[in-house]
């Protein structure tokens, strides 16, 4: 049985007065160990990046860049047809923006996690995954990349020894192949059921798929989304569940 677990959450997904979640990111901070901060292309802007980095420092939460497709209108959930080089350039641009806010507050950039449709495309696109990991090395960012364990991203990182963290998705369903399935639920999530799902994954390394099959799953971090209805309750239940099972909430350490 595991002794510690990272909980990461996507944050800063707002622009000006608009925000995708009804929950303020500050409310979620006490329940997580890592924050994935939107870097301006799918959501986020300089003011929100600035604020979330400060909040992360206040709550001792690790900071990660959450770059996405250049798709503000579609919230980064629509695939954009572009070359791997163009997409990686967009990622580098976004990482650089957040890294400067990290430098401003003397907070280390802890990890990078692509967002939404870009995350899913990289999971199956070997060329894109390898280009991304290689550029991370070239720009001197020897920090973990967060991804699914079955992804091309994971394979590319392991191939050259780049740090990588596998995720388990608390508030997403799983297919029989071990990939997450984007099934949108409009109703409020059942935080208790999500906690039970995560604890089973942590203790038994098992998850039930959308077809009812039980598959093995390995991971170092649990992810949930701030825009999932009931996200604050999910955050609270996850931390409570870990504590009840003597699992320490702690960011992934190399």
CATH level-two architecture? Alpha-Beta Barrel
Which segments are poorly predicted (pLDDT under 50) over 5 or more consecutive residues?
Answer: none
Rg, Å, rounded: 17 Å
CATH class: Alpha Beta
Number of strands: 14
CATH fold name: TIM Barrel
How many structural domains are formed by the residues? 1
Helix and strand composition category: alpha/beta
Order of helices and strands: EEEHEHEHEHHEHEEEHEEEHE
Helix content: 25-40%
**Mean of residue pLDDT values:** 91
- Largest sheet, strands/sense/barrel: 8 strands, parallel
Strand content: 15-25%
Q: Count the helices. How many?
A: 8
Give the full name of the CATH homologous superfamily.
Glycoside hydrolase/deacetylase
Terminal residue distance: 19 Å
Q: Can you tell me the overall shape? A: globular
3D structure, described in words:
- The protein is of the alpha/beta class and about 250 residues long.
- It has one domain (about 5-250): Alpha-Beta Barrel (TIM Barrel), CATH 3.20.20.370.
- About 40% of the residues lie in helices and about 20% in strands.
- It has eight helices and 14 strands.
- It has helices spanning about 25-30, 45-60, 85-105, 115-125, 125-140, 150-160, 190-205, 230-245; strands spanning about 5-10, 15, 20, 35-40, 60-65, 110, 145, 165-170, 175, 180, 205-210, 215, 220-225, 250.
- Strands 1, 4, 5, 6, 7, 8, 13 and 14 form an eight-stranded parallel beta sheet that branches. The chain has a two-stranded antiparallel sheet with strand order 2-3. A two-stranded antiparallel ribbon has the order 9-10.
- Helix 4 packs across helix 5 and helix 7 runs parallel beside helix 8.
- The protein is globular.
- The two termini are about 20 Å apart.
- The mean pLDDT is about 90.
């Amino acid at each position: 049985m595991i002794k510690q677990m990272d909980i990461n959450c996507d944050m800063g997904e707002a622009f000006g007065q608009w925000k995708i979640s009804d929950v303020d990111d500050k409310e979620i901070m006490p329940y997580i160990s890592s924050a994935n901060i939107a870097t301006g292309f799918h959501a986020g802007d300089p003011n929100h990046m600035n604020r979330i980095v400060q909040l992360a420092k206040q709550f001792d939460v690790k900071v990660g860049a959450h770059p996405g497709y250049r798709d503000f209108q579609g919230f980064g959930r629509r695939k954009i047809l572009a070359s791997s080089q163009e997409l990686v350039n967009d990622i580098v641009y976004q990482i650089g923006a957040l890294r400067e806010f990290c430098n401003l507050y003397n907070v280390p950039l802890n990890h990078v996690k692509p967002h939404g449709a870009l995350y899913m495309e990289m999971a199956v696109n070997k060329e894109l995954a390898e280009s991304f990991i290689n550029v991370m090395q070239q720009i001197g960012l020897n920090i973990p990349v967060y991804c699914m364990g079955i992804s091309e991203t994971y394979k590319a990182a392991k191939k050259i020894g780049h740090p990588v963290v596998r995720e388990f998705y608390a508030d997403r369903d799983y297919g029989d192949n071990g990939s997450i399935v984007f099934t949108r639920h409009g109703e409020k999530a059942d935080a208790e059921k999500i906690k039970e799902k995560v604890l089973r994954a942590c203790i038994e390394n098992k998850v039930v798929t959308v077809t009812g099959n039980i598959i093995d799953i390995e991971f170092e971090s649990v992810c949930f989304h701030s825009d999932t209805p009931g996200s604050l309750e999910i955050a609270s239940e996850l931390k409570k569940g870990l504590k009840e099972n003597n699992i320490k909430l702690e960011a992934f350490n190399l």
